[in-house]
Design brief:
Belongs to the peptidase S10 family. The protein is of the alpha/beta class. The chain has 15 helices and 15 strands. It binds 2-acetamido-2-deoxy-beta-D-glucopyranose (4 copies).
Length: 500
């Protein structure tokens, strides 16, 4: 189990906030909600309720609700864009945000980073976010799989072990959402965005097309007569794509000034030990990539933990080191940021539960689910490479943006430079032949970038964009640490503008 701890710390909070039992009223009357039945699947329906600025402080229209699939209920929160679309006929863009984990609630990203409103300093309300990501696009947050955040299972139902089912649910949810509930998004474009592990969840590595993105692409192709989910791109922030390269990047992040620090974090004694241990960590990790048996992958994780990772991550806790920003303190265990506890407090208020009309089956909101994390931990899902998922999407002409806060260690830029260069696909040679160049935001150098635009399908002129962008002075949570730069980056990506 030890071998899993570093991932566990990375992805799932486990702190025990004193849980106040919220006032749970009788089942909310369905009249509060509008119910939409899927035109494609008899098992899927969406119940949706309008909210107002007293819940999340923003001038735009907002709605919350659940996708109901039998005993599973997936929670969502949806916001309109601040700017109306250019003309009455144009389809409105939509961005889906998924927080990492597995097992982390998307409410974290919403209220701590990029939502239209952010948690206030007391944890009893929200403040308008000037840099919310819904300036040019509508924004949708989903808690998944069931068992995470406000998503729940009927009593007695087991936590989903097979995440493939969840990918199918997310696809059906989006299909209904853009065709029946908000048809103004019917032609998209849709961008799926998130952090760490997020964009790949739900996922089961048993099957290459098991992430939500890949599921969408394959279902669109399989059922051309059904409503299509207009997925155009992925924007992945500090993604947990290649554990091997992330471990390798620990040395550069901690033993050089490359992340943008004045002096290396570690002294040469520690750096020498890590350097000596790295070749074996790489060797066993490569074996896991080639033979992804859980026993081999968990061994790889253990070798890398004890030889490399533990020196820093073993000292990460309240008052210790922060894995998400090598220059920042760690205020609370696991997630390090005090805001996380405030979010949990706010979402557990009686007034919040009653506005959302949370049903009896859910008595407490938690920002992270241990049960879901453990279900993933029992597989090899956390140690293997996700590059095959990305190459599948690129081959399907889905644009991919990889953005990286440079002060992050957990999913470090040094490792991301390595895997983006090593990923085998048609654009690889051109991508590696290019140099990173500074990109400007607000009149200042924001970081480095490079990109390629590659024709992926013979006979089809369409070019698929693969961009790599770094952000200086930012840790893992880029919209939290560099809000103006992060919004500028997103809007450029949505508009198809170059970074240099
Ligand atoms: C919330 O509801 C519970 C249960 O009814 C009650 O004990 C508690 O005082 C309420 N809290 C607030 C802040 O109103
Ligand atoms: C939040 O708490 C602060 C400090 O206790 C208080 O001044 C403020 O009125 C509270 N706001 C709400 C909306 O309850
Ligand atoms: C190097 O850092 C470690 C951990 O902070 C410390 O225990 C050790 O004494 C340091 N060594 C030197 C030579 O400063
Ligand atoms: C906003 O919604 C809450 C319930 O969620 C309600 O009590 C309040 O009256 C609403 N405010 C406005 C201005 O509609």
């Amino acid at each position: 189990m030890k071998s899993l701890i570093w991932i566990q710390a990375l992805l799932v909070p486990a702190f025990g906030i004193t849980s106040q039992t919220p006032l749970v009223q009788d089942e909310p009357t369905l009249s509060d909600f509008t119910v939409h039945q899927s035109s494609v699947s008899p098992d899927h329906s969406i119940r949706i309720k309008r909210q107002n600025a007293s819940l999340c402080n923003t001038p735009v229209d907002q709605y919350t609700g659940w996708l109901d699939v039998g005993a599973k209920h997936l929670f969502f929160w949806y916001f309109k864009a601040e700017k109306p679309p250019p003309s009455d006929t144009a389809s409105e863009p939509l961005a889906l945000w998924l927080t990492g984990g597995p097992g982390g609630s998307s409410m974290l990203g919403m209220l701590q980073e990029l939502g239209p409103c952010l948690i206030n300093a007391h944890g009893n309300g929200t403040v308008y976010n000037e840099y919310g990501w819904n300036k040019e696009t509508a924004l949708l947050f989903v808690d998944q799989p069931a068992g995470v955040g406000f998503s729940y299972l009927d009593e007695g139902e087991p936590v989903p072990g097979d995440s493939f089912t969840t990918a199918a649910d997310v696809h059906l949810f989006l299909q209904m959402f853009v065709s029946q509930v908000f048809p103004e998004h019917g032609d998209g474009p849709l961008v799926i965005t998130g952090e760490s592990y997020a964009v790949f969840v739900p996922l089961s590595r048993k099957d290459i097309i098991s992430s939500a993105g890949a599921r969408i692409v394959s279902q669109n192709a399989l059922h051309p007569n059904q409503p299509q989910v207009p997925l155009k791109s992925l924007a992945i922030g500090n993604g947990y794509v290649s554990p091997l390269d992330t471990a390798y990047g620990y040395w550069e992040t901690l033993c050089t000034t490359n992340p943008g620090v004045e002096a290396p974090v570690f002294n040469s004694t520690r750096c020498d030990i890590m350097a000596a241990n790295l070749p074996r960590c790489m060797d066993v990790s490569r074996t896991c990539y080639e033979h992804p048996d859980p026993a081999i992958c968990q061994a790889a994780s253990a070798v890398c933990w004890f030889g490399v990772i533990e020196f820093y991550d073993g000292e990460s806790y309240a008052g210790g080191r922060n894995r998400f920003d090598i220059t920042a303190p760690c205020d609370i265990d696991n997630y390090c940021y005090a805001n996380t506890a405030l979010i949990q407090k706010y979402l557990n208020l009686n007034s919040t539960f009653s506005a959302l009309a949370v049903p009896k089956a859910l008595t407490h909101f938690s920002v992270g689910s241990d049960a879901v994390m453990n279900a993933f931990g029992a597989t090899n899902d956390l140690e293997i490479s996700l590059m095959p998922q990305l190459t599948y999407l690129l081959a399907s002409q889905i644009d991919v943006l990889i953005y990286q806060g440079n002060l992050d260690l957990a999913c470090n830029t040094a490792g991301a430079k390595r895997w983006t260069s090593n990923m085998a696909w048609k654009g690889q040679a051109e991508f590696t032949s290019r140099d990173l160049k500074p990109w400007m935001s607000g009149g200042e150098v924001a970081g480095m970038s490079k990109e390629v635009n590659v024709q992926m399908v013979e006979g089809d002129e369409k070019r698929t964009r693969f961009a790599f962008v770094t952000i200086d002075g930012s840790g893992h949570m880029v919209p939290q640490d560099q809000p103006a730069v992060a919004l500028d980056m997103l809007d450029r990506w949505l508009a198809g503008k170059a970074f240099d």
